[in-house]
What does this fold into?
Amino acid sequence: MINDTIIQLLKDIIKDEKRILTDKVDLYSYSYDSSFGVYLPDVVVQPKETEEVAEMMKLANKYEIPVCPRGQGTSLSGGPLPVKGGIVFDLSKWDNKLIIDAEDMVAVVSPGVITADINNAAIEVGMIYPPDPSSSNVSTIGGNLAENSGGPRGLKYGVTKDYVIGLEVVTPEGEVIRTGGRTVKNVTGYDLTKLIVGSEGTLGIITEATLRLFPKPQANQTLMAVFDDIVDSGRAITNILSSGILPSKLEIMDNATINAVESYEPLGLPIEAEALLLIELDGHPAAIEDEIVRVQQVCESTQASEVRIANTAEEASELWRARKLVSPAIVREKPTKISEDATIPRSKIPEMFKRLKEIREKYHINLVVFGHAGDGNLHPNIIADKRDQEEMHRVEKAVEEIFEAAIELGGTLSGEHGIGTLKAPFMEMELGEIGLDMMKRIKESWDPKNVLNPGKIFPEPGQRLVLTNG
Ligand SMILES: Cc1cc2nc3c(=O)[nH]c(=O)nc-3n(C[C@H](O)[C@H](O)[C@H](O)COP(=O)(O)OP(=O)(O)OC[C@H]3O[C@@H](n4cnc5c(N)ncnc54)[C@H](O)[C@@H]3O)c2cc1C
It folds into this structure.
């Protein structure tokens, strides 16, 4: 598909040859993400200008070569994998633009800027960029936009789509368009900005974004509540939120997660507890002082066996350390982590925990559960060893049942990790035949030759979840 002529045409567009990679060793670096499977691209390019992207897209469209945009490859659903070969556009090197406009309260950024850098730059002028995926120190804003990423602050502040007001996008046919703008209010025509956000690199390549910033909360405070019964922790979540208090973060860790963290690094966590909640409140100091006591009361009246309030910033970061250590802690037992983000309505959290317990027992799998319980976004994680094919087949079945349970309870396949290749087989289960077909029609009208990130979101006929080729 890619021959010397195509490589020469790419060199005519990207004059700096160092930004065109064809050595096998380089190609392997782009053959995987943070999920499953290894797929070699034919060539990798590292664009740093809109014009380069547009010209290369025209070329790819003309010769019908697949193009996979890529940020830092932290996707947990296979989004940047070149499953059909072709060209990988590595946009992570394009990080030169990070403009903070305090008056308009926006940031204007190029696609390769690291997400945490946007928040850090905003803090310097008394603002924040709220979306905070746990990968924010490594992932790019382009990847966040394409995946519509969220994080612990999603409960109060929403996800990436809630902060994007304008985009520059290169279409699959190599045209440059601008969507939205710089104003908070903009209702002109169809909302193409929101359509591109979350499209996982299948409709266009994001080359610039205008993001809203928010005033930095004046203060915050953290509390940890411990529960002997996980169902009580679910009730506590509902009671806190219905009491009129909206925490900035409300995270849950189940018993398996607590124990994994405690044996990884002893922090004095309650290893007998069935669940713990980590809750952060932010806002005016006087309001927080009042609200933290009320949250404590709600937890105690919902059978919390212990409530710890952090009195200093150090104590707070000590409590959050437990949550931060979850990822490294849980992979100590076995090397492969299948990280899901099936999301359910908040009221169904206790029922989902019950279903997850049944699935754990039925398939004899090591399943731990943590996540952003305040918005129903649980992260059931299965810890396995991908070299053990028999175990991986059980894991595949368990994952299928996790999705079935989430959909049956009125939830969704993904709260923030996207669909990519891994969840494509389940799309019809959530959207229905017609719903999925409407999405396909949008894809076909944007990208008639299916050159942009093919093999993602939409299932191939008969496609099933496969976790055994990685
Ligand atoms: C330890 C860990 C923790 C994580 N925690 C979270 C979390 O809390 N919340 C969350 O939402 N996710 C989380 N993730 C998943 C991942 O970090 C996010 O999906 C992130 O947005 C991916 O960014 P990236 O730069 O790595 O993009 P990649 O993984 O490289 O790409 C992701 C998708 O974006 C597309 N893409 C990339 N750049 C562009 C562009 N400029 N234009 C168009 N398409 C583009 C790719 O084709 C692909 O489909 C986590 C991942 C890890 C490994």
Q: What stands out?
A: The radius of gyration is 23 Å. Residues 33-34, 68-76, 79-80, 91, 111, 133-135, 139-140, 142-144, 146-147, 149-151, 200-201, 205-206, 327, 416-417, 453 surround flavin-adenine dinucleotide (CB under 6 Å). The longest helix spans residues 389-408. The mean pLDDT is 95.
